[in-house]
Structure formats: C-alpha cells, structure tokens
Amino acid sequence: YQYTVNIDEFLSNSLTEFLSNNNQNSVYSPLNTYICLAMLAETTDGNTREQILDLLNETDITSLRENTNKIWNYHYNDDKLTKTILANSIWFDDNISLNLNTLETLAESYYTSSYQGKMGSNSFNNAYKKWLKSYSIDAQDSLSSQTVLTIVSAIEFNARWLNEFTRTEQGIFHSNNNDINCEFMKSESVLNYYWGDTFSAIRLNLQNQTGSMFFILPDNDMKTDEIS
Predict the structure, then answer these.
(1) What pLDDT was estimated at residue 221?
(2) pLDDT over 90 at 187, yes or no
(3) Per-residue pLDDT, 3
(4) How far apart are CA 176 and CA 96, in angstroms?
(5) CA angle 99, 101, 106 (to 5 degrees)
(6) CA 33, CA 151: separation in Å to the nearest integer?
C-alpha cells in the first residue's frame, strides 16, 4: 500500500521528538499518534487542518481518511498467535456540539466511538477510565472540567517470539546511575546483528510475520539520545 510511505516518513520525523532528551523509559506508538492526528484533522478546518495534513504527508482530507482506514484494517488482527486490537474514541463536553456529519465520518472511517457528558464529573470520568481499562490502559489522569474535547487512540498488542528465549542468566546491567544485578534472557537461536556509527543492535522476529523488535545498545561513549 502507498500509505506505508506516508506513515514511515511520519515515524522518522516524529520518533526523535517523542523519545529524545528524556531520561525516563518511554513508549511511543507512531501508529496511534498518526490516527489521533488524523481524527483531529476531521474536527478542524482552515490552516489548522492544513498543518496536520502537512505533518502527515497527505494532500487532502479525503486521502488521509482513506489511508488511515487502510492502516487500521491492515494492522487490526486477533488470532491465536497475534493480537493487535485498535480502538478510537472521542469525548466532548455536553456544552458543545459537534457536527453530526463529522461524528459519522469518525465512526465510519476511523471506527471511533463518541461520548458526550459533563467534563470533570465522576460519572463521565468513570466511563472514560472504564473504556481505557477495556483496552488494558490504566488511566492515571481524569478528564478535567476545563477540558472541552479529548481524542483517544488505543492499541492492545500481544505476539509471540518466532524463536523464544530458552533460559535466563544472572548478569550486570550498566545503567547511567549504577550497575544492577538482574536476570538476562538467553536464546540459542542465531540472531541478526547490526552495527551503526554510534550503536549496535539485534533484531528478534515475531511469529505470524507480524514484524520484529530491535534491541539497540549505544556505544560506550554515547548517550541514548545521541545515537543515530
């Protein structure tokens, strides 16, 4: 699909912004961020919409709508080996009204559930947290009474290694602050190994041709936000 070019460019451009200069462990899903921005574009117009389209490398809202729908259907999967469950929702205060055609487009093209209620109320917050919990997200924040609209895109991903780890072994993990004694996963499989100018890496494949995971180790004199 042509959309893979668009989302790959977005991944490359956004990855550094989300993960650099951060001393904490972070998780970033470009897929969900892309979908959230696409839904946001549907609720805006004018210069704001044009800026989002430029960021997502799309020429118009119709093209963005079609490509996001393809992305959703390409990645959504639930079988015995792999689970990739996607879910979208939009939450807005009962003092505002969204265009009915916009809500229908969000439902049809983005599979988005719509919820309207009193922002900041216990009942609306409970509904919000319950929705997130159903997709294995433990919400720490509530919807503030100052919030007008919230867009959520969630993913529940579960897959098995193509070649599973066979044992663990005690070893020393060298963190930025101190050395930590911990269990390291071990495998007897032959792995793909890569070298860059500032790092080395291995790639572990997942079953059912669902992709792979890279484990990246910066060189001794490099920080994690300096590798390229």
Answers:
(1) 79
(2) no
(3) 52
(4) 48
(5) 100
(6) 10
- Asked if 178 and 119 touch (Cβ cutoff 8 Å), the reply is no
- In the numeric block, the tokens 């079953």 are attached to 207
Q: CA torsion, points 29, 31, 33, 34, in degrees to nearest 10? A: 160
Tell me the DSSP string of 84-102: EEEEEEEEEETTS---HHH
Residue 214: CB atoms within 10 Å: 10
Q: What burial class does residue 187 get, using C-beta atoms within 10 Å of its C-beta: 0-12 exposed, 13-18 middle, 19+ buried? A: middle
Nearest to 147 by CA among 166, 164, 128: 128
Report how far residue 151's alpha carbon sits from residue 94's, in angstroms, rounded to the nearest whole number.
15
Residue 209 falls in which region: left (phi positive, over 0), alpha (psi -120 to 50) or beta: left
Q: What is the DSSP letter of 68?
A: H
Please tell me the pTM assigned to this model.
0.82
Which residues pair with residue 93 across a beta bridge? 117
C-alpha closest to that of 162 among 199, 224, 210, 207? 207
Q: Which position has the token pair 């484990």?
A: 215
Q: At what angle do helices 61-75 and 100-110 cross, to 10 degrees?
A: 40
32 Cβ partners below 8 Å, 6+ apart? 86, 153, 154, 155
Question: What's the CA angle centered on 150, arms 84 and 69, to 5 degrees?
Answer: 40
Residue labelled with tokens 């300096």:
226
Q: Write down the pLDDT at residue 129.
A: 92
